[in-house]
Amino acid sequence: MPGEFEEYGGRHVPEALEEPLAQLADAFDEIVPTDEFQTEFQYYLKHFGGRPTPVFYAETLSEIYGADIYFKHEDLLHGGAHKLNNTLGQALLAKRAGKDRLIAETGAGQHGTATAMVGALLDLPVKVYMGEEDIKRQEMNVFRMRLMGAEVEPVTRGNAKLAEAVDAALEDFAQNMEDTHYLVGSAVGPDPFPRMVREFQSVIGREAREQIQELHGELPDACVACVGGGSNAIGLFHAFKDDDVMLYGAEPGGTGDSHSAPLSKSKQEEPEVFQGMLTKVIDEDTENHSVSAGLDYPAVGPEHAALQSLGRAEYHAISDEEALAAFKELSQAEGIIPALEPSHAIALAKKLAQEDKHDTLLVNLCGRGDKDMQTAAEHFDLS
Amino acid sequence: MADSGQAAETRRSDGAAANSEIAAAFDDGPAFIPYLAVGDPSYEASKAYVEALARGGADVIELGLPFSEPIAEGPTIQGAIVRALEGGMTPELFFEFVEDVDVDVPLVCMTYYNLIYQYSPPGSDERGPEQFVARAAEAGISGLVVPDLPAEEADPLRAACDEHGLDLVFIVAPTTEGERLQSMMERVSGYVYVQARLGTTGAKSDVSDQTDRSLQRLSEWNVPKAVGFGISSGEQAERIVASGADGIIVGSALVDIVADGVDSEWSTAETADKLEAKARELAEGATRGQTEPAPSDE
Ligand SMILES: Cc1ncc(COP(=O)(O)O)c(C=O)c1O
After folding, report:
1. Domains of chain A, earliest start first
2. Catalytic residue of the set B21, B51, B73, B163
């Protein structure tokens, strides 16, 4: 079975989706390692995306937290989040594989925006599925997508959030797989998506590993990243997997009994088959919720479930309140407004520092907070 | 287990059904196989509907066990699943339904692998395919269709089915070839579900010529071939049987009637009558298809 991460992963889809996914896996294996592909990919990452993004030493925050805090500045990537690494990689691959239409799901709208960007850049029509609930709370990104020519299709079924948007996109894909590439936005879904998204996002960790050694003189004690589906986290972790560096994922702990934290808050031990993969999912009676739309997903990428079961990474829940506090703290201490998603990672880094667990922490600042200003304005009474 | 594995070897190589009732359903003439989601829109109504399908001439009935996360189902079947879940359908109630429903044709359970993987009988700590199949067999289910279970991963379920005398049906898509086709051939029993066209489920007025090609690809398989996806009229049923199918599977066109009944607030009896009439049209179409000479290739 392809795409196994320990017992997790796989390709659990109806037979009609097997063939296009097998073809995509073959295209990925054959095309991505070639010099031709890599040259083109690196060219766009640098000149369109602005890579490499810097690593920044957060002096004031380090003082407050009592440990050295370094940020990988993925919020400075074009589009304002790490998402472009993946959308560029997949779109260039799709084009070489002969697809001429892109579809995507989006939660916070960051992935949809990054897909709209590459669609406009590479002249591919884009349709983005987005839950109606998310359209309300991330309106700015809807405008951005439409301005760049993408069609944004509201999804109203169920909770009308990210998981339902994935369902709607899968249906479109099943209908139109001959000419359409489903540009999955996180390290989730059936094989080859989890390993493909990791490949395209792993540039984050590769750069950061060099940069922090240059800046700090050695490797950090720990890496910290937020985990929705898990793409920015796996993108950071991958380069450190053989190092003596602890890996921490911050899951959205939500509020009360409502959360989207399958690895840190589920009671159920057994994995489930969900959206084409075998992975950990929140308990059936848990209401799926996070203040950050990008983390508001009831499952997690299969490789994170595997890293947890191997004891290679730890996952901790950060509540809405803790994330909002970190959001404000970083804004005031460093003049950087983070997205609500990495605010979870910052809050976890603070806890780890204050518990004296580690002296040096590298945090993936995977997105900027412009999209969250409405939520912030309401929460902090800014008007 | 070793014994049933041995039996499975023999069965697989000659393609015969594990379940004699399903085999018998294909014995005299083409089989008409309707699908409904159990519990759509309520337990009692769907019982009346399934019984109406049997009166209308069903030879096998596929009963959908609703799962909250069906992957790549079209809006029609999704709607049915949502209504059934909102009506309170659960695996336990589903099995009660199977025990309760008054029909004398074999019943095939169509569901997603997660429910089977997660299934644990009340009061038991054990979970998984063996538990699910044991309970299904006890309730009177004759076979299973699990759309998101790849054949290469089906061995535990196949073994459980062998032990309890259930058939395991696989879906062959227009794109299924090579190793995956081979894996299915080695593990299928009862009938093979030939998906007439790509895309999600949903009633369509055209019958794809992909069907002919798929039937040709399967021509050396010993197992009966039932064609489904998009069949909605007796005339289509006739054409598909005439081009070589051993049976037809109809889901969305029937679920559409249930949905219309919900929207227009028909009585249960009224909806059941319409389902029975549609079933009769489809069953008769299939029968005509067998007696008409097959259309020539020209
Ligand atoms: C800024 C940002 N960070 C994180 C995520 C979560 O995704 P992942 O866990 O795949 O990195 C999102 C998703 O929209 C996002 O916009």
Report:
1. 4-44+83-197 (3.40.50.1100), 50-81+202-379 (3.40.50.1100)
2. B73
Task: Place B212 in a pLDDT band, splitting at 50, 70 and 90.
Answer: confident
Residue B104 lies in a domain: yes
Alpha-carbon radius of gyration of chain B: 18
- Angle at the Cα of A114 from the Cα atoms of A108 and A120, rounded to 5 degrees: 135
Shortest CB distance from B173 goes to which of A10, A16, A273? Answer: A16
Residue A268: CB atoms within 10 Å: 14
B73 is known as an active-site residue: yes
Q: For residue A163, give both structure tokens.
A: 């998981």
Q: Is residue B14 part of a domain?
A: no
Rounded to the nearest integer, the mean pLDDT of chain A is 96
Q: What's the pLDDT at B73?
A: 78
pTM of the model: 0.90
User: Does B246 map to a domain?
Assistant: yes
For position B298, what pLDDT does the model report? Answer: 41
What is the residue range of B145's domain? 2-7+27-290
CA of A173 to the centre of ligand 1 (A): 22
Rounded-to-10 torsion of CA B78, B81, B83, B86: -130
> Can you give the CATH number for the domain in which B242 is found?
3.20.20.70
Query: What ipTM, to 2 d.p.?
Result: 0.81
Q: Look-up: residue for tokens 């009166």? A: B55
Q: 3-state class of B1 per DSSP?
A: coil
Pocket lining: A294 vs ligand 1, CB cutoff 6 Å: yes
Per-residue confidence at B12, pLDDT binned at 50, 70, 90? very low
Mean pLDDT score, A36-63: 98
CB A276 less than 6 A from any atom of ligand 1 = no
Cβ–Cβ gap B172/A12 under 8 Å: no
Q: Which of A78, A82, A166, A337 to mutate to test the pocket of ligand 1 (most atoms within 8 A of CB)?
A: A82
Neighbour tally for B210: CB within 10 Å: 17
B62 annotated active-site? yes
Q: Which of B69, B72, B74 has its CB closest to that of A274?
A: B69
Report CA(B253)–ligand 1 centroid distance (Å): 40
Flag whether pLDDT at A158 surpasses 90: no
Total of domains in chain B: 1
